Amino acid sequence: MADPNYGRTTTVTTETIVTSPNIRFDPSYIRTLPGMLKAAQIILNLLGFICITVSYHSIHSRGSWFNTVAMIGFWFTGILLVFYLFHVIEKFFKIPWLKVEFVFCAVWTLFYLLAASLAAGWANRDEAFGAGAFFGYCAMVAYGYDAFLKFNAVKSGQLAQGERTTTTETVSPTAY
């Protein structure tokens, strides 16, 4: 009787996740594209917030909404940047960080579209709102591009921080 598996090859894929449980400061993250995007987002959030805050009309609902979007973006992105710089993300690699960041960046892109558009609508009444709108649109682009990068990373199965190595081995049965 012939072996039914004779002549068939088997492919074995092994996935290894390499992370370090140590919390350590690593300033090299800020020189990566995601690190530079986070730094730019923090700066744009802060500049937009300052522009609206110094305005005479900052207590208007348009200014309040813009400042709410800017400050939540500032703090969330700032905390994430600190987590990446100190490898907290790597320590807790089981949390789906890329999905969390993707959702946040996508939502903040829409929030900034609305906030900057509302501020731009008052640019003729107050120049500070025009400047805030400019920084808001710039932040919208930064968050939108970051959401695009995070979407691609989630789709390809990348880790937020750490390494995932995949090895594929083809095994052929031995002849009798």
Give me the secondary-structure topology.
Elements: E1 10-18, H1 33-53, H2 61-85, H3 88-91, H4 97-121, H5 127-155, E2 163-171
Antiparallel strand pairs: 1-2
Written description of the protein model:
The protein is mostly helical. It has five helices and two strands, in the order E-H-H-H-H-H-E. Strands 1-2 form a two-stranded antiparallel sheet.
Give the fraction of residues assigned to helices.
55-70%
Beta-strand proportion: 5-15%
Largest sheet: 2 strands, antiparallel
Briefly note the structural class of the backbone. Answer: mainly alpha
Q: Name the overall outline.
A: elongated
Adjacency order of strands in the biggest sheet: 1-2
The averaged pLDDT comes out at 87
Count of extended strands: 2
Amino- and carboxy-terminal Cα gap: 12 Å
Computed CA radius of gyration, to the nearest angstrom:
23 Å
Oligomer: single chain
InterPro entries: Marvel (IPR008253), MARVEL-CKLF_proteins (IPR050578)
Transmembrane segments: 39-59, 65-86, 98-122, 128-145
Subcellular location: Membrane
Keywords: Membrane, Transmembrane, Transmembrane helix
